[in-house]
Write a structure and sequence with these properties.
- InterPro entries: TPR-like_helical_dom_sf (IPR011990), TPR_rpt (IPR019734).
- By secondary structure, the protein is mostly helical.
- The chain has 2 domains: about 1-65, no CATH class; about 85-135, no CATH class.
- Helix content is about 70%, strand content about 0%.
- The protein has helices spanning about 5-25, 30-40, 50-65, 70-80, 90-100, 105-120, 130-135.
- The radius of gyration is 15 Å and the shape is globular.
- The termini are far apart.
Length: about 140
């Protein structure tokens, strides 16, 4: 796992924080734009950087909530390959939800089961019960 040099980390962190402010106000399109700006600052070999995990997870989350399931899937799949991404219950949850909404129940069940194994019931707490039901099926 590699940390970004401060010259990149600080502006990326600032953009993530700006995006989070929009996100918290329900302005998901504006949040997504800030998250995408942060992604553009990531150096090549994106999957090498810890910051990539958070940037891509934010993009995936906003995309999912905007019903852009393909876009969410792409970002979250990449986040899964970044440092600590494969063990992040939230990333696994959102990726499983995208799989479900894209009509791939077997992949969805696999990801959602992994999310449950890592995060338990808590990760599903504020989510539509249909996702947890898939784990129990």
């Amino acid at each position: 796992m590699s940390a970004l040099p401060d010259i990149l980390h600080q502006p990326i962190q600032a953009l993530l924080e700006e995006g989070d402010k929009f996100f918290d106000k329900g302005k998901l399109d504006a949040a997504l734009l800030k998250y995408e700006e942060a992604r553009a600052l990531l150096p090549s070999e994106t999957e090498r950087w810890e910051a990539s995990t958070w940037v891509l997870a934010a993009i995936g989350d906003a995309s999912f909530l905007l019903a852009d399931f393909a876009g969410g899937h792409a970002a979250l799949s990449q986040a899964l390959r970044c440092p600590e991404g494969a063990d992040n219950a939230f990333i696994l949850l959102r990726l499983g939800q995208c799989e479900f909404e894209l009509g791939r129940p077997d992949s969805a069940r696999q990801m959602l089961s992994r999310a449950f194994a890592v995060g338990g019931d808590e990760v599903f707490e504020d989510e539509d019960p249909k996702y947890l039901a898939l784990v129990d099926a």
